[in-house]
Design goal:
Layout: H1 3-29, H2 39-42, H3 54-66, H4 69-77, H5 82-109, H6 116-123, H7 126-157, H8 162-180, H9 186-206, H10 220-237, H11 244-269, H12 289-296, H13 304-312, H14 323-347, H15 355-361, H16 369-385, H17 389-425, H18 434-453, H19 464-488, H20 494-521, H21 524-560
Helix pairs in contact: 1-5, 1-14, 3-11, 3-14, 3-17, 4-14, 4-16, 5-13, 5-14, 5-19, 5-20, 6-7, 6-19, 7-10, 7-17, 7-18, 7-19, 7-21, 8-9, 8-11, 9-11, 9-17, 10-17, 10-18, 11-16, 11-17, 12-19, 12-20, 13-19, 14-16, 16-17, 17-18, 19-20, 19-21, 20-21
Length: 561
Amino acid sequence: MSAITILLLGLAGMCFGWFVYSRYIATHIFKLDSDFVTPAHELEDGIDYVPTNKYVLWGHHFTSIAGAAPIVGPAIAVYWGWVPAILWVVIGSVFFAGVHDMGALWASNRNKGKSIGALSENVIGPRTRTLYMVVVFLLLLMVNTVFGVIIANAFVSTPSAVFPAWAAIAVALIIGQLLHRKLMRLGILTAIGVIVLYVSIYVGSEMPLSLPSGLPGLGIPATWIIILFLYAAIASMLPVWMLLQPRDFINGMQLAVGLLLLYGAVLIFGPEITAPAFNDQIAEGTPPMLPLLFVTIACGAISGFHGIVASGTTSKQLNKETDARFVGYFAALSEGALALITIIAVTGVALAATSQEWHDTYSHFGAGSVGAFITGGANLIESGWGLSAGLASTLLATMVVLFAGTTMDSGVRLQRYIIQEWGEIYNIKGIKNGIVATGIAVGACLTLAFGAGGMDGTGGMVIWPLFGSTNQILAGMTLMVLAVILIKKKRPAAIALVPMVFVLIMGVIASAILLLQFFREGNYLLMVINAIVLVTSVLVVLESTSVILRERAKQRDENSA
C-alpha cells in the first residue's frame, strides 16, 4: 500500500478534528470567552504567570507535551501492525487528546491556573486531591527519568547530536532576552533562531562530540544522565521567559521544518509500506495488543502528561481564553501528525525494502523504536529531498533530543510545584523552598533511573510500559474531573465521559498485567510503584463516580420539582 494514501487519510481525519469538532467544543461545550481575565494577567509575576503570544505558547506547550513519546510509542507499537497503530493515533488525537488537552487548559484557566490535581479538591473532594497528586508526581518521576535515559542513549549512539542540542540552549537564552526586552520582533527572531539551529545541526554532523570517559564508577550513559538532570534542575528554576518559552518555541519551529521535510519526502518519494497491516509473526512472550496498544501509544493519541503541562505551566501563560483551542487542541493534533509520520517512517521501504527485512528489524516487541525512526526518517528525507542520510540522521536525532529535553525542563519544574504544594498543604517549611524542592525532584529521578536501569543507566527504558499505563490512567482521571465540572455546569459531558471510560479500562487492565509481570521478574521497585498507582487511581475513580451520581440525582430532583 502507498504511504501517500495513509498520510492523506490520516490528515483528513485531523482536519475534521480542527475545523469541525474542536470549534464545536470550544463554542458550545467550554464556551471560551475572549473577555475572560486569565490568570496570566490577574496573577502576573514575571516568573510563572506571564501573558504570552499564542504562537510562542503553542511552541512551549507542544514541545513540552511531545518529548520523544510520540516517536517512541508508535515506533514500538507498529510491531502489532500499522493499521491498529494508525487508527488509534488518528481517532485518539481527534476525539481523545484534543478534548483532554483543551479541557485541562480551560478548567485550570477558570480556576486561577491551578494544576488539575489541586483543582480536583474543589471539584471532587480533599481526599481526591491528595491521591491525585501522588499519581501525578509518580508519572512526572517516570517521564523525567525515561526522557533522561533516552537523551543519554541518543548522545552515545548519535554523537553528532551533542553540539546542536547544547547550542540550542545558548540560542534560546539569547532569544529570550531579546524577546522579553522587546528589542526585536518575533518573526525576525524566529527566522534567526531556526537558521542558527540548523547551522548548528550541520556543524554537529561534521563535528560529532562524545564524552572521553564516564565519572568514576559510572559509564558514559550514566554520566550523561547526571549532567542532564543538573541542567534540568537549573533550567526549571529560571523564569519561563528566559529559557523555557524561547527554547520550546524554537524547537516547535524546528518540528514544523522537520515535519515539512518528512511529509514532503513522502509526497515526492511515494514510498510503499512493507510492514504488515496486522503482524502474524508475533514472537513468543509478546504482550497482547489489547490493551497494551493503547498504553504503548500514549502521546500521539492521548496522554495524562498533557493535562499536567496544560494546567501546570501553560494555563499560567494563556493570554486570552480563546487561545486555548489553538494551544491545546491544535498542539494535540500536531503531536498526532508527528506520530503519524513516525509510523510511516518505520513501516515503509525507507527502513526495510521487503517484508522480510522489516521482520528482521522488528524481530521482537520493543525492537526498532527511536533508532528505527532515525534510520527510516533519514532515508526517507534522502530519497525525497536528496539530503545526505548522515545529515538527516543528525537532524532527526537532534529533534528527538530537543523534544525530550524540553519535556524534562517542564517536568522537573512541575515536580517542584507539587513538592512545594505539599509543603503548603502539610506545613512542611523546608520543602516550600524552590531549591530544596528541585533537589528532591532531581534526586528522586536519579534514584529511579539507576534503581530501575542499573548503575550504568542503560536499562532505564524498562520503565516505559509502566509510564504508558500510568499515563493513560491519569488521562482518564483528568477526563473524569472535566466530566464532573461539565455536569455541575449542566453542560453535555459525553465528550469527556466516553473517552474517560475507555482509557481508564485500558489503563487499569494494562497496569494489572504489568503488576504480575514485574512480580514474576522480581522487579520489586517498579512493582511497588505500579501498585501505588493502581490502588490510588481506583480510589480516585470511586470518589469521582460518587460525586457524579450525587450531582446527577440532584439535577433530576431539581428538574422534577
